[in-house]
Amino acid sequence: MIADTQLPPEVEDDVANIKDVARHADVSVTTVSHVLNGRGRVSAKTRARVLAAAEQLGYTANAHAQQLVTRRSHILVIQMPDLDGPAGHDVALVPTSESEYFLELVNGAAAAAADAKYALIVVSAGVDVSSMRSFGVDGMIIVDPKGSEPVLQTSFAAKYPVVTTGEPVIAAGAPGFVVDNDHRAAAREILDHFAAQGRSRPALIVDTTSRSYIRDIVEAYGDWCSDHGLSPAVVAVPDATPADMGAALASLRTGPEPADAIFTSSDGCAVALLNAARTAGVSVPGDLALASAVDSSILRVTNPPVTAVYLHPRDIGARAVECLTQLIAGGESGSDAPELDTSRRLIPTRLFIRESTTTDHHDDDGK
Q1: Cα 290 to Cα 346: distance, rounded to the nearest angstrom
Q2: How far apart are CA 107 and CA 344, in angstroms?
Q3: Closest listed residue to residue 284, CA positions, set 305, 309, 312, 314
Q4: How many whole angstroms separate alpha carbon 188 and alpha carbon 180?
Q5: Cis preceding-peptide flag for 168 (omega within 30 of 0)
Q6: Span of 127-136, 178-187, 306-315 with lowest mean pLDDT
Q7: pLDDT digits (tens, 9 = 90+) for 180-237
Q8: Minimal CA–CA distance to 316: which of 131, 211, 166?
Q9: Which domains are assigned to the chain?
Q10: Which of the two ends of the chain, N or C, has the fewest CB atoms closer than 10 A to its terminal CB?
């Protein structure tokens, strides 16, 4: 940071303009514009000199003027998922049980957008594509896409950079980039943990089939069962009401080989199952081990605390913004921004082992 904030004598007014920066850095106005807008090819030495001059003069670019020059609004949109019905219907953004995951994801995206000098608008799955164009957005992030979203079913995705967190479940216009976790590997890690604890009959309860991560979990579970000579036992409980979850638990615990471990697709589903087990007199972890594919703060304070996979949602949101802004920069003529070397980025997961699967756990819940 340059300590002397007094404006040099060549600055005639109290507020420096782009010409003052160019004069102070001994470069052209065009070079200053390229540096401040991230365009063109400018040497690192010249770029540093321009940035130092702008900082010393306290120069702040006029946002409206930048938009006219770059044809960029510096506005990004993040579309939250519709988890209760077909994409495009007027429903709540997300269910309460998963609000923590999505809040962390949006916070990560917002922080990354601010760092990149972008504004972030949050919209629901039912947003009209025409309104996206009227906003003058530079690009869009779609969280947990179904593929039936209007943005993916129209020409929008062909004209604007689009990044998704998770793969579209149905065929749709391909997004420019996907940020995701390796949910198959995470599922196998939980199932291997069950086996290491002596559990030989794991079952799976899912609360929806319209999200790609659950599709990945179901496939990984089926493959794991096949590898271990077991018949898969998958139950869908869309609403996770006490009655429905109680019925699901009863169906998995009856017969000559009752389930001795259950893997749920969400934190809300895990809490509902824990309550159903308590009502039915099923001990966790004594009679039944329980683990969730999604971690949250509530799973750390249940009785017992529930083993779960932490997905690092803040990192997912941040990486999605970083990839989107890189796609935007790469699409500009004359840009020297590096191209993304793949179309997919995986964020690591972490399994937190808690008392719902073993009384001898040593994992630190610090994140």
Answers
A1: 26
A2: 21
A3: 305
A4: 17
A5: no
A6: 127-136
A7: 999 999 999 999 999 999 999 999 999 887 789 999 999 999 999 999 999 999 999 9
A8: 166
A9: 18-70 (1.10.260.40), 75-175+313-347 (3.40.50.2300), 183-311 (3.40.50.2300)
A10: N
